[in-house]
Amino acid sequence: MNTIxxxxxxxxxxxxxxxxADILNQVRDHSFKEELANRMALIESQKEQAxxxxxxxxxxxxxxxxxxxxxxxxELKAQARTIxxxxxxxxxxxxxxxxxxxxxxxxxxxxxxxxxxxxAKNDIQEQLLxxxxxxxxxxxxxxxxxxxxxxxxxESVQKIQKEKDNLLNELKSKETEKQLLEKSLTESxxxxxxxxxxxxxxxxxxxxxxxxxxxxxxxxxxGETLELHCEAEFxxxxxxxxxxxxxxxxxDASMGSKGDFIFRETDAMGNEIISIMFEMKNENxxxxxxxxxxxxxxxxxxxxxxxxxxxAILVSLLETDSELYNTGIVDVSYHFxxxxxxxxxxxxxxxxxLRNAALNSMQYKAELALIKNQNIDxxxxxxKMNAFKDGFARNYDLASRKFKTAIEEIxxxxxxxxxxxxxxxxxxxxLRLANNKAEDLTIxxxxxxxxxxxxxxxxxxxxx
Length: 464
Known about the structure:
Order of helices and strands: EEHHHHEEEHEEEHHHH
Largest sheet: 6 strands, mixed
Distance between the termini: 232 Å
Strand content: 5-15%
Helix content: over 70%
Number of helices: 9
Strand order of the largest sheet: 3-4-5-6-8-7
């Protein structure tokens, strides 16, 4: 039997084991359910507040960003509007996916709570049948279950927060892309407008320049004034841009024709950097017979070749209505090599352009000049060698002929000496014979057959 003491009247009651167990179970079930309900309500309240706060923040942020986007989108043109509309649609899809993920997380959380509650209830019902010594373990397991539920909720909230941050970052990147696209389109339109304005301004300046020039000039002075204008433009920058260059009138008409100006520039070693033959052409608007630029190409190319210039440039105000020549600089090398037609305002730019290109190729020109000099040295050496061979061969031929003549003369001399020898030998023989005859000559032989002489010699011998 067990006793129960009333807390109010202090009276002690005796109850059997089964009644005591029922009372104890009722007390424990009620307190545990009440505590569990309070904890779950607190967790549910905290969870709802966190989710509502996150939703409100995301909603406010998205509403402010969407309002800003709508305001900016109204200012863009058709192409930008289409692109931004697509971007907003993509973002709406992403937001829908995000909301779907939130709903899925909410559903997973509710299922986890239900599973936890069911598991806790089952565990409690099973553990209430055990002995009192397991009550402490039951409380520990309940607390562990509550902690696991909190951890699961915390992880879910963190996961949702992380996804929200990722979505915000993607939203910011999309916003940055939109701004860059807007800036690129603005710069493109601005550059196009600026380029168009520059072209219009240059054409207006050219028209104003030509009108001003032709209002001040007579027909006779038109061509000369264009030359003076170009010469003055060059002299303005001669000392700063072309200090080592020559630019002057072409006064040499020895080959039948001459150009207007020649430009030459060399480096410190005397190597030519660039050379240009210039021809300036202009005419009055009232002239009945209009000339064309092509009419002067052949003469300009001939002058370039005669004066050994690399380039030929026609500075022309002819064909004012031609879209081709009004572009400013026209390469007409398909007519004649290295020939250009320019308007007067491009007189200095074409010189700078060709000169800078030539400076870039000076290294190759220097190497080519070195190779050319080496080839010239080799050619000179070969010429000297050939000249030496020719001289040696000529001298050898002369010496050979002289030697042959000398041998022939020696042979002739030998033959003459041989004859002289034979004559001397013959003379010696005759002298020997004469000597023999002289030695054989006696008085007896002289007086033989001559009695008179014999008697005279006998008398002489007797007298002696």
